[in-house]
Structures are given as C-alpha cells and as structure tokens.
TrEMBL record:
Record keywords, A-Z: NADP, Oxidoreductase
Matching InterPro entries: ADH-like_C, ADH-like_N, ER, GroES-like_sf, NAD(P)-bd_dom_sf, QOR-like, Quin_OxRdtase/zeta-crystal_CS
Family matches, as Pfam families: ADH_N, ADH_zinc_N
PANTHER family: QUINONE OXIDOREDUCTASE PIG3-RELATED (PTHR48106), QUINONE OXIDOREDUCTASE-RELATED (PTHR48106:SF13)
Protein known as: Quinone oxidoreductase
Domain Enoyl reductase (ER): 11-321
C-alpha cells in the first residue's frame, strides 16, 4: 500500500484526502514508478472541482518524476532503477504510479528528479505554445500573462530564447522581479493598471503579435485589444475562471485576428512528438539556458495547502508534492 491524495467528492481544497491505496500492477507497455516528486498543476484544481469531470473516487495528479520499480511486458528501453519523468499519468499524487513507457522520459544524469518533475507539464506547454501555437520569431513582441507563474516563467524564457520581446503581466512586486529575471523586457502590474493601455503605450500603438493568456475570464477582453492586425490570442487556461462565449465577428473588428484554445495532449500526439519536445526542453535545462524555478515543496499530506496557495495566487514557479 502507498499513500495517495484521493478525491471522493468534488469541491474546494478541503476535499483532498490522504489515503492508502494499492498500486496497480503495470500492464503491457507500462512502468510502475516510485514517485520522488509530483507536480502540482492548475488542471489538478479543475479536476478537483469537477470543472474537468473525472469518475469519483480518483487519485489526483498527472505529472512527476521518480525511479522505475517494476516494468510491464513489452517494455523496451527502461529498466528497474531508471529515473524517469512524465506529464500525463493519472494518479501521480501518490507514492507510486503507473506510467506509460511511451510517454516516460529518461531523466538526464545532470538533472534532479525534482527539476525534471517541475519541468514536464508546464515546460512542455510553454514549448508547444512558442513553437507550434504561435511560433515566436526574432523581433516579435508577445504578451505573457501571469509571467511569474509556473508556465509563465518558462514561456517568458523560451520566447526570449527565440528572439522575441516579452511583455509580462504580474500582480505583485515580488512577481515582477521574477518575471524580469526570466527575461521579460517590460512588466505590467495588471492589478493596478489597464494592461491593454500599457501594451498600446509600450508598442507605440502597434500591438503584439501574440498574447499567451492562461488567466482567462479576467483578461480575455483586454487581451484581444492588445493584438496587432492578424495577431493571435492563444487562450490556454482559465486561472481566473472560464471565458464566456465569443462572437467570431470580434476577430474581424479587431483586425483579422486568430483565436485558439490549445491543449497539451494534442501537442504530445505521438511518442515521437513527446520525445522531441522533451529532448529540446531538457537540452536547454542541461545547458543552463532554461531555469526551472521550484517555488514550493510540500509533503504529499499537505496537498490541500498547495492547492490553497496556488488558487490563492500566492505562488511563483512550480509547486511540488514530495511523498514521505
Ligand atoms: P500559475 O503558476 O500560472 O498560477 C496561476 C497564476 O494565475 C497565479 O499565480 C496568478 O498570477 C494568475 N491569476 C490571475 N488571476 C487569478 C485568479 N483569479 N486566481 C488565481 N490565479 C490568478 O499556474 P500554472 O502555471 O499551473 O497554469 C497557468 C495556466 O496555464 C492555467 O490556466 C492552466 O490551466 C494553464 N495550463 C494550460 C495547459 C494547456 O495545455 N492548455 C497546460 C498547463 C497549464 P498573478 O498573481 O501574477 O496574477
């Protein structure tokens, strides 16, 4: 039996319950992994609340890194004792989890399990956003909301590495300092000023080529106002709540704009795509070109506090849960 954070009823952080569960035996193509660090992601809060429905009861979590404890049939390339990281294994808030070998990445020797766990879901998201959703080109100016958050810090660094000019938004002075450290050229405190007016001023009225908006309800309308003609609004999340239905005519009025609502799973469509994105991400980490900030570590038993801090807007970078 291993410890696990279980959801028996949807609701606030108080529904998270530490339980003891029997780990599943790994089937064909699967690995059983001792979890060293599980990543906390905003999607976990959506699943906990039931906004993204999951059959109850369930063990929360999707991401982590750890050590292979057992190997299922037909697995090649992995052995007991290997360090692996993953972004899409349901039930990762636990002492052990079963991971698809095709979607497990061998952690490079110079990267810790904690950094690997912290890099996966948010790092792969930042990677597909700047390479596939709106591919940042040298000279582009882009707007990154919540630039000191988990995705935000990585997105800022990856957009800068592609030659972009980054305008970040944040809510506090501490977060502003972190966004600047990550390379943001300009930082707007969007809780104090109208960020679209500021973007207008910063770009001399030209607007930005793309807005990466994971905040949703509170930012969507003004995000659209920031775009240059033919610019792209990549709405990739809803930390402030879901965006109401949109009239497509607004895209015309705004200047032949593009609106997309991308998701990670569609950008890890094959094991090859998963590997390619991981290789690029971990090469940047190993070379010191990408800094992965771990903003908080919590024992698995304190998953509730981690969720309260994340939803309370008190966190920066990545939150990790550490099994006992
Ligand atoms: P963050 O670390 O970015 O935390 C959320 C941040 O959003 C907060 O720190 C806060 O930053 C900002 N925020 C603004 N308004 C609110 C509000 N009302 N309540 C809470 N937070 C608010 O989280 P993640 O990096 O885990 O995720 C960021 C977004 O990316 C989420 O919407 C998530 O769902 C999405 N996502 C989407 C993926 C995809 O493939 N589509 C994959 C991964 C994540 P500040 O205080 O500076 O305003």
């Amino acid at each position: 039996m291993v410890e696990a954070v279980v959801v028996r009823a949807n609701g606030g952080p108080e529904v998270l319950e530490l339980a003891r569960v029997e780990p599943r035996t790994p089937g064909a193509g699967e690995l059983l992994v001792d979890v060293r660090a599980a990543g906390v992601n905003y999607i976990d809060t959506y699943q906990r609340r039931g906004i993204y429905p999951v059959d109850l009861p369930f063990t929360l979590g999707k991401e982590g890194a750890g050590v292979v404890a057992a190997v299922g049939e037909d697995v090649t390339g992995f052995a007991v004792g290997d360090h692996v990281a993953w972004a899409e294994a349901p039930g990762s808030y636990a002492g052990q989890v079963v991971v698809s070998a095709a979607m497990a990445f061998p952690v490079p020797a110079d990267v810790t399990d904690e950094t690997a766990a912290a890099a996966m879901l948010q790092g792969l998201t930042a990677h597909y956003l700047v390479t596939s959703t709106y591919s940042v080109k040298p000279g582009d100016t882009v707007l990154v909301h919540a630039a000191a958050g988990g995705v935000g810090l990585l997105l800022t660094q990856l957009a800068k590495a592609r030659g972009g000019r980054v305008i970040g938004t944040v809510s506090t002075a501490e977060k502003e300092a972190l966004a600047r450290e990550a390379g943001a050229d300009e930082v707007i405190r969007y809780t104090e000023t109208d960020f679209a007016d500021e973007v207008d001023r910063i770009t001399g009225g030209a607007g930005v080529a793309a807005v990466y908006d994971g905040v949703g309800k509170d930012t969507f309308d003004r995000s659209m106002a920031c775009l240059a003609p033919r610019g792209m609004l990549a709405l990739f999340g809803a930390s402030s709540g879901p965006v109401p239905p949109v009239d497509p005519q607004r895209l015309n009025a705004g200047g032949s704009l593009f609106l997309t609502r991308p998701t990670l799973a569609h950008h890890l469509a094959t094991p090859e795509e998963f590997r390619r994105r991981c290789d690029e991400l971990f090469s940047a980490i190993s070379a010191g070109r990408l800094n992965v900030r771990i903003g908080g570590r919590y024992p698995l038993a304190e998953a509730r506090r981690a969720h309260e801090d994340l939803e309370g807007r008190r966190t920066t970078g990545k939150l990790l849960l550490i099994p006992g």
